[in-house]
Design a protein that fits this description.
alpha/beta, Rossmann fold, 4 helices
Length: about 180
């Protein structure tokens, strides 16, 4: 797998250091709250787990699965709810954990859904933010972002191509030859 990487953007130690910084910000913002942390499957699992381990606030955890890629390298523009939450979010403070905000359509879909369901507040933590990929119609932004990344095809640390590369401990740029076959 490492041979498929053009270059590493963020090492494992850089990622863990940045997550610790984000955790401190979240602790300050949620000191008197007990947020429901919603991890967006499957890519955000590693980020969510590492973040939760560093947080010193009471939280509950739930998962939601949405898709807009359907195995491709670019968002299809259509967001589909694949697996819904088990929690009732009405009247609760919500912290969405996302692996990457690219077009932003998935995040917009989630925020709108949680607002309709009566969430008291919604904040977003993302490991990676790719503003150059953002759809102009998207109005939501991350409250906590690990790194701003270039408009490249990234894998590792939860990010995949065709289901692979999620287990790399770093974030890297996938060689175009791998996904243009």
């Amino acid at each position: 797998m490492n041979n498929d990487i053009e270059r590493v953007l963020y090492s494992e130690s850089q990622i863990q250091s940045r997550i610790a910084e984000i955790a401190k910000q979240i602790e300050n913002d949620y000191a008197d709250k007990q947020p429901v942390v919603i991890s967006v499957l499957t890519g955000a699992i590693l980020f969510t787990v590492d973040l939760l381990e560093k947080l010193d606030v009471y939280t509950t955890l739930d998962f939601i699965d949405v898709s807009s890629y359907f195995g491709g390298t670019e968002s299809s523009g259509r967001v589909e709810l694949v697996r819904d939450l088990k929690s009732d979010v009405k009247g609760k403070d919500i912290l969405i954990c996302e692996d990457i905000i690219d077009s932003g359509r998935t995040l917009q879909f989630l925020v709108d859904l949680l607002k309709k369901r009566g969430a008291k507040s919604i904040k977003v933590a993302t490991m990676l933010d790719k503003p150059d990929g953002r759809d102009e119609a998207v109005t939501v932004e991350a409250d906590y972002a690990g790194f701003t990344v270039p408009n490249e095809f990234l894998v590792g640390y939860g990010l995949d191509y065709d289901g692979f590369y999620r287990n790399l401990p770093y974030v890297g740029i996938l060689k175009p030859a791998v996904y243009s076959k």
